[in-house]
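Lay summary

Proteins are chains of building blocks that fold into shapes. Our project writes down both the chain and a compact code for its shape. Here are two examples, one after the other.
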Amino acid sequence: MSTVAEIEAAVRKLTPKELTRFRRWFAKFEAELWDKQFEDDAAAGRLDKLAKNALKKFREGRYTDL
């Protein structure tokens, strides 16, 4: 399978049980990619400005409890 169209066609042919298994796998796969991107961004300092701003607002009491 080398194209998105081929992958889509294959997914359409999955049984309900196989589709459930695929969904679980894909959710885990996507979460791992997101985690890696977040870690890379943090290590590169791309989140520093956001963190600094959040801490400033917290120290000023400008936050909302969740």
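And here is the second example, written the same way.
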Amino acid sequence: MSRATGIPVSNEALRAHARRLLEGGRVARRELALAFEESSATAAKLYVAGVRFYPPMLADIQAATSTVHINQFGFRSGLVGERFADALAEKARSGVPVRLVVDEQGSHPYDVSKDFYERLTRAGVEVVVTRATKLRVPFGPFGDETRPTRWNLSTVGHIDHRKAVVVDGRVGWVGGAGIEDHFEDGRFHDLFVRLEGPVVSQLQLVFVASFRWLGGTIPPGDADELFPRFDVGSGGAPAVVLHNAPGRYRPITDAIAELMDGAHETLDIVNPYVTDRGMIRRIEAAARRGVAVRLVVPADPNNWACGAAERFHHRRLQDAGVRILEYPTMVHAKAFVRDGEDVLAGTCNLEAWSLKRFFELDVRVRSAELARQFADDFFGPAEEVSGPGTVPSGAKERAKAAAFAALSPFL
């Protein structure tokens, strides 16, 4: 696991740190390795499936009075995308700053989605793009024809896989779904957690740092509005934002390992791509020491190489006592619940690219109530419709599974 340290930012220093980012020159990628201390969430609610999380997310956006900030891997035209685009455009035209950080591979703003993003920018939405496959790129906001072209070496290979929404600095959404139709129509099964309270300021700082790193500008005088004061007294659940920015500091990866290693009674995991051998060994070890481990994976994963690599380990995990549940559609959620009180949810998969190379964003909340929501609204219903984990059968299938398992550091 990573032993590198990030840039420590205390809860009291969030606003001041943001102001330095807004007032300074170009932000380097290393400045995205933010190490937060424990904060709190005055409210944390789970929403399962796009038909349930998109409407309240849109309602929050439509109610915004100061800012709407979205970091999204996949935001494209479609029934869902157009609803969000209309809401964002209307909000921007009303004078509320709307800013987006999107990934080129997931959202395609320079090719198939170009018209879509041009409509957004014409309405006043500010867009910056992570371009992980280009050695040289125009630096600055999408649509700015005066942007200088610069070398992009620090970004190559580092997809921005994050999915988060921050409204008025007071409401935050973190989950695994893109703003895309297949998360609403049932083809992909996913979830979001809606947060209120001081922990949202940590999400806000991650966005501000990322937006500035990609050449976006935010008036320094907006810092106070971006980071409102919270009066929560002693209330709220302990919570912290974890941000994997490419480099040796990987707090999500470390937190996942700590959750698995520290489980005493129960460990519930949902993840679409379970291929990292180190994490698989931790799941197995938890079951062997008596922890009741429940692992939800897709029966028919959209990444067949990851699916084959994962199934190579099914027999050993089942022998250790892990209950593997194969969800009938493409389960895409990424969440961990330990001992009925410790929840980690967000965007990080259990494969090498997410754990070590991609931009990822998770939130950790210590809340028996949120853990109960996961048990009642996600894991319980998933168990009712899922079948048992399958094991490769036949020489050809076993050989394929073994081959892809051997390639797991590259999957």
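What can we say about the second shape? The longest helix spans residues 368-385.
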